[in-house]
Amino acid sequence: MIAHRLKITIPESHEVTLRLPSDVPPGEAEVIVLTESVRPEGSTQPFGTWLDSWIRTVPRSPAIPLEALRRENLYE
Predict the structure, then answer these.
(1) What is the pLDDT of residues 10-28, one digit of tens each?
(2) Taking phi first (over 0 means left), then psi (-120 to 50 degrees means alpha), and beta for anything else, what does residue 13 get?
(3) Torsion of CA 32, 36, 41, 46, to 10 degrees
């Protein structure tokens, strides 16, 4: 597999034309576009805030005193 890295600027039209070097063989290929992960202002909340709100939706587990647990119950 041959990899070629090209730095480009994506225009407002979001259309990109690529001209590959002549040593790239013709045939099927895969194109991958990597961009900086930019979060638009106000579009999402920070992960910590989301996690805190999600934790509040999880039901609390019942508290069982250690003395109430018996070894025999493990094998039932």
Answers:
(1) 899 989 988 888 888 899 9
(2) alpha
(3) 100
Give the integer Cα–Cα distance in Å for 70 and 56: 31
CA distances from 71 to 54, 64, 68 (A): 34, 14, 10
Written as one letter, the residue type at 58 is: V
CB atoms within 10 A of CB 58: 7
CA dist 15 and 8 (Å) reads 11
The structure tokens listed for 22 are 């002549």
pLDDT tens-digit map of 25-70: 899 988 888 887 766 665 567 788 888 888 889 888 878 888 788 8
Return the structure tokens found at 61: 């587990």
